[in-house]
Amino acid sequence: MANKSSDLIQGTLDMLILKTLALESMHGYGIAVRLEQMSKGVFRLNAGSLFVAFQRLQRAGLITTEWKATENSRRAKYYALTTQGRKKLNSETREWGRQVAAIARILEAS
Amino acid sequence: MALLRSAASGLRSLFRKKQVTQELDEELNGYLEMAAEEKMRRGMSREEALRSVRLEQGSHEVTKEVVRAASWESIVETCWQDLRFAARMLLKHPGFTAVAVLTLALGIGANTAIFTMVDTLLFRPLPVRNPHDLTFLAFPRDASHFEPEFSGLEFRQIHDQTRGVFSDVEAMVLGGLSGPASRPDGLTVDAITRPAQPLFVTGNFFQMLGIRPYLGRLILSSEGNIPAGDPVVVLSFRYWKTRFHSDPGVINKIAFINGQPVTIVGVAPRDFLGPTPLVEMEAYLPLGMMTVETGGSTAFLSDVGTRDLIIVARLAPGVSIERANAALAPLGSQLAKQYPRPGVGTALQARHLRPPGLVNGPNPLPALAALFLTLSGLVLALACLNVANLSLVRAAGRQREMAVRAALGGTRPRLIRHLLIETILVALFGAAAGMIVGTFSLRALSSAATVTDLPLVAEFPFNAHVFVYALGIAIVAAVIVGIIPALRVSSGNLSNMLRQGGRSSTARSQRMRTALVAAQVGGSLALLIIAGLFARSLSSAQHSDLGFDPKNILNVALDPGEIGYTQTQGEDFYNQLRSRVRTLPGVQSVSFAAIVPLGDTVQGNDITIPGYTPQRGEQLHADYNALSPEYFKTMKIAVLSGRDFLDSDTASSPRVALINEAMAERFWHGANPIGRNFNRSGDSQHTIEIVGVVRNSRIEDPYSPYSPAFYVPILQSYSSAQTLQIRTAGPPQAIAPEVLAVIRGIAPTAPVLHVRTMTDAVNNGAGGLFLFNLGAELTAALGLLGLTLAVVGIYGVMAYAVGQRTQEIVVRIALGAQRTNILWMISRQGLAIVGSGLVLGLPVALVVGRFVGDFLVGIGPTDPLTYISTSILLSFVALTACYIPAHRATRLDSIVALRYE
């Protein structure tokens, strides 16, 4: 069972989901596939951790949900960014960049 | 905002659980379907794809559980589950649940009742503004007595010269209490007269207290200065409620206090019972209206030697009582010089008004309170021990259940939580039942009032604080004992427990239970011994020689002064009454007395004896009573020498007195006192001649050594309040209706304060056996409670022990053991418990008994008979509790029992 989510730094999953939703609203499976594609197969998430994250983000008001028909005319719950979610994504991305740069500097210093 | 949304969403999933679950289900299904479709596109068959998805994603149900568990509402949900589970488990063991709940209920109920009573009598501050700043002033007499009464002149001076120390200085007079008969005044409305305990106050008294009227108005600051000048009265809430059924129409109505017209102007606040402990004030009047009690005399305001006023003062902001006392010192010496008080200290003191306030002399209440708090605490401890014990017994029986649950994946925290919730549930039920027990006990205590003409504060409303306190103790105790089984399970070896089929009761836990039960036996022995001491003390008081014969006497308390009779009218009334009652059939003798022995009060008088030189510091003091002729015949008190009073002893004839043996012995040392003289202090004109000596009889209480007493004719020392005493041939109550008819015939509106037999007065009077009865009843109730708890404990442990050893016993029987051997084998264990309980209990009883010593009469706190008889009683009851399970063990049918195993 490929569960790489434990390799994700705590909290980064939320950021990645927000990033995935930045362009368009998506359903749960779509988000999972997109994450796997974008990470070139590094992040393969199981449904449990993904849905827990959805629930958390939704309660924090960063995403909203809506039941819609998929392209295959199946009913699915679509997630979309709220304004607040977009703001959060921006600030998280900036913060992430700063941290990565800092870590990189430390690692290169030796 | 986010929190709010989370809460809303959480609540939604709690209350619309089905819909939320469905939604999650659908979403998850969709997810898996899509994943499977993806795989099918890559060429898998549908089955293969679904299987592969399941492998990748894990169980559908587990995923759902993971998502649900991640939210806060899931904790609420599992707690709810646990609660339902706990309730189910408790219902499955109704015996255990009932006993545990009942035990806790008794413990909590008893404690709530006793704490409430103590709180009401001792600790609750007055319901006024800043009650802790209120003080009363007094000169000290000795370590425990003080003189709190001042003349009007002294009051003026203190009022004017303590501006920096006190923000308010007011005066009050407890009406009736300072008079000879200590009876409330009569309050007449619509021609019906009922007693009302009055408090006379200066104008700013209520402003000082900072309280507002319930209805109408209180006394005004302009009122109270002029004698008889402000005829108004304010009623207490309870008096208004009980007598006038809360009728607001009584405001502005004309009433009569002792026959003097006054206007009812208001009703005091609901919870204000007056500034004194124990006695409730029912009518508030301006100080100047004291004339209704003094017959017009204004000595209470202007006479140097008449000290009736109690001074109540509020400490100025920021002034401590120590600073106030330092500032009062010079004023005290000045007053002592101006208005000397022989034998009294000069250090004027401010003392806190409550608690305990105006209780003069040694106050027995704190010691009594401490005793009963200890006893009820012991009962609660026994109750907790009992529940602990029951839980242990049950835990042993549940080891297998725990082991199974642990093996099925119940985590340790979850198991502990389960047991905690169970015990807390038991504690809560116990508390609810305890509230009922407490309420009923308080009702019983409130109605156990002494027979008295004073309005005693004997209402003990349910006290929520106390209840919460007892509940807290019960929960803490329940939690401590409740988690033991859970802790044991997690430390034990699961497979061992499972294999032994739940019969793995360890020696350790058995020892612990035995110790707990032994402690219970010990505690209940201590309670029983205390109860036994009180019962013996009561019986010795009951059998003490009163010196008079209370049987077949009817007491009728009267006070025509309450409808405004003057002395002449009163004497005429009593005279007619005597001659008419005498003619009733069955009447043997008729007499009057100002007070009845063993009642609310005693009258004392300082005396001077010509030719008697007092020793240094000796104060010549004697109790006295005013009587009509035939009193000694009615009471059957022997006149030892000299003569009884005669009808010819009147106000115009020479003053005479009879004295008791104690007085003759004390002041004349065996010489014949007849013909000797003495004077009552404050009355130097009238020298009293002793004309007879009577046998000693009880006056104040049934046990103290006899003190000197003298009796004077009531015509030479008039009291408006008199008790008509009739000795009858038959039962005295039978004559009451005829006597009342006679009284109505003479004076239709004269109030009858009470009608009761002398026996009743002795048994329930404040100075009689009331406290002995109350003490014996309370301790007996607590002792019985302790005994019950101990029996339940012993029975539980023994029954369980027999259950555990069933197999062993049947094997023994099968191998030929005699039934008596089996009986002995089981009983030995019980004997050991009871024996060690006695060893534990006796020293506890000895310690508690030392506190009790002061309240016992006729026996010491180590009375051997009590100790031995209660020990035997307890052993007998406890061994009976052991015998039942032991006997059952010998009746076991081997085949049935073995097959059952």
Structural class of chain A: alpha+beta
Distance between the termini of chain B: 63 Å
How much is the average pLDDT of chain A?
82
- Identify the overall geometry of chain A: globular
Number of self-contained structural domains of chain B: 4
The parts of chain B where pLDDT drops under 50 for at least 5 residues are none
Residue stretches of chain A low in confidence (pLDDT < 50, at least 5 long) are 1-7
Summarize the structure.
The complex is a heterodimer of chains A (110) and B (901). Chain A is built from 4 helices and 3 strands, in the order αβααββα. With 110 residues, chain A is an alpha+beta fold.
Explain this structure to me?
The complex is a heterodimer of chains A (110) and B (901). Chain A has 110 residues and is α+β, with helices and mostly antiparallel strands. Chain A has helices spanning 12-20, 28-38, 47-59, 83-109, and strands at residues 26-27, 63-69, 75-81. A 3-stranded antiparallel sheet of chain A has the order 1-3-2. In chain A, a hairpin with a 5-residue loop joins strand 2 and strand 3 (75-81). Mean pLDDT of chain A is 82; it is low at 1-7. Chain B folds into 4 domains: 2-71, no CATH class; 131-352, no CATH class; 366-542 and 770-900, no CATH class; 560-750, no CATH class. In chain B, the strands form 3 sheets. In chain B, strands 1, 2, 3, 4, 5, 6, 7, 8, 9, 10, 11, 12, 13 and 14 form a 14-stranded mixed sheet that branches. In chain B, strands 17-18-23-20-22-21 form a 6-stranded mixed β-barrel. In chain B, strands 16-24-15-25 form a 4-stranded antiparallel sheet. In chain B, helix 6 (94-123) crosses helix 14. The longest helix of chain B is centred in the middle third of the chain and has 43 residues, at 365-407. Chains A and B meet through helix 2, helix 3 and strand 3 of A and helix 1, helix 2, helix 3 and helix 4 of B.
